[in-house]
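Take a look at the protein record below and flag anything odd:
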Amino acid sequence: MFKTFPKAHLAIAVVVSTLVGAGLMLSPSTDVEAGRMSVSLDLDTVNSTPSNDTPTKASGKTLAAAPTETTLATAPSRTPAPELHWSRYDIKRGDTLSGLFKQAGFNDGLMLSVLHGSGDANKLERLYAGETISFATNAKNELEAVKLQRSRLRSLRIDREDDGFVGKKVVREPEARTTYAQATITNSLFGAGQQAGLTDKLTMELAGIFGWDIDFALDIRKGDRFSLAYEELYLDGEKIDNGKILAATFNNQGQNYVAVLYTDKDGNSDYYTPEGRSMRKAFLRTPVDFTRISSSFNLHRKHPVLNTIRAHKGTDYAASTGTPIQAAGEGKIIYAGRKGGYGNAIVIQHGYNITTLYGHMNGFARGIRSGKHVKQGQVIGYVGQTGLATGPHLHYEFRVNGAPRNPVTVKLPDAAPIAKSELARFKARTDVTLATLETYQKAGQLTLAKGE
């Protein structure tokens, strides 16, 4: 019966039958995943039939069907992208976009065409020293693309399209690898940090986490120890920076403190105890980086200038002139100006019953004035020795219902804890991190024991 059909028709029938069978065999099932395949048929010219190899499954992984080397029809070939030649320029102080375009051999007219392109093309006009800019040209020396490398992670790419130039920001995400460090303090916190392989910046961040509970200027003792799990950031296999501290412990004079990083549903990150209490207090213990306490809280002190018994209602922190002073807590400035023996001073109202005072300031930060709302940690001024002062320092007072309290020893109220509605999510996320830190600690202790 097949002899009665023309050979061309028989060939077409064979091809169609083969494709239908292969399609049924390749269709997805509960056990096998396969990519969707599309085939174009030319009924006038048949080259060959496709392979009917089916996907197989091994070791729990789905294996894709082997590609066939032949096609049923010759698809029109895509025009290959033009080969581009890139020229790169380092941006120095004083460089302009117009000057850089001219160095690359292009005029201002073309520069404006690029800047007036769509997307983020106009962002090219903001240049900073230390960045690099590259120009891509085709074989006819026509501009095809511009790339502004702002950092290893951030760049701006502008390409020529059919209807003009199109700009797009490119942000690369580094790979975060969890790393562990631990140390025992024998001399100083920074010395122990360096011994553990930490940068001074990371050590400062560690101190910042526990800074509401531990006075790192006065409370640190030989034998105190800490451990932390933190991120190291890698790009193309090379470490480029440190990331966030994920969890940490600090044992100070026998008292153990534990902190873990948590990011809530709104994307806000902060450090908490394993029970969900905030590591932050509503107030900073010390609002300035200082070298020493030059005069302590003493209601029966003899004044060094007036030479009379006069209550010292705050604490004096010796620091260099110009050292930034931070607001100890969030609040509203109720006074900013000259205040008798305090010299230049600021008073901040926190809630209804707490005020803080900052005296002998060299000057105020920009925008600081009476009535201004400030956040905790915001710089409000700079250390000086205005008023009755024998040297540069910050005079800091903490008052509750108008009565002075010793800033060094006063019990500071906590910041808000994890909300009850989010406590289950907090525990689920942080228990894993804390377990990882504990595993690292045990491994570290084992290593130390073997070393001994």
Summary: The radius of gyration is 34 Å.
